[in-house]
Amino acid sequence: MITQTAKCRYCQSDKLIEAGQQSGQQRFKCKNCGRAFQLDYSYEAHKPGVKEKIERIAHNGNGIREALHAQY
Ligand SMILES: [Zn+2]
């Protein structure tokens, strides 16, 4: 599960509980300090689907500028 690698952004505790979703993103609550938060985007990049999408855009385009241009 994702909770095994996720850590609290405030106290770095890995004792997180799922706290529902907001705007399609999973929210977590830290059992150590009691704060709720969404995971950083860096964690999203570790998900296979997102990483593949980024790599595919990078490979198809000739750089970031074209990759960004293709989204519009
Ligand atoms: Zn915490």
Question: What's this, in brief?
Answer:
This protein is of the alpha+beta class. 33% of the residues lie in helices and 22% in strands.
Describe the structure.
With 72 residues, the chain is α+β, with helices and mostly antiparallel strands. The chain has 2 domains: 1-39, no CATH class; 40-72, no CATH class. 33% of the residues lie in helices and 22% in strands. The protein is built from 3 helices and 3 strands; from the N terminus they run βββααα. It has helices at residues 41-44, 48-60, 64-70, and strands at 16-22, 25-30, 36-38. Strands 1-2-3 form a 3-stranded antiparallel beta sheet, with no helix packed on it. The radius of gyration is 16 Å and the shape is elongated. The mean pLDDT is 73.
Q: Major sheet: size, sense and barrel closure?
A: 3 strands, antiparallel
SS content category: alpha+beta
Number of domains: 2
Shape: elongated
Task: Return the average pLDDT rounded to an integer.
Answer: 73
Order of helices and strands: EEEHHH
- Indicate the percent of residues in helices: 25-40%
Range of strand content: 15-25%
Distance between the termini: 34 Å
Tell me the strand order in the biggest sheet.
Answer: 1-2-3
- E-strand count: 3
Radius of gyration, Cα only, in angstroms? Answer: 16 Å
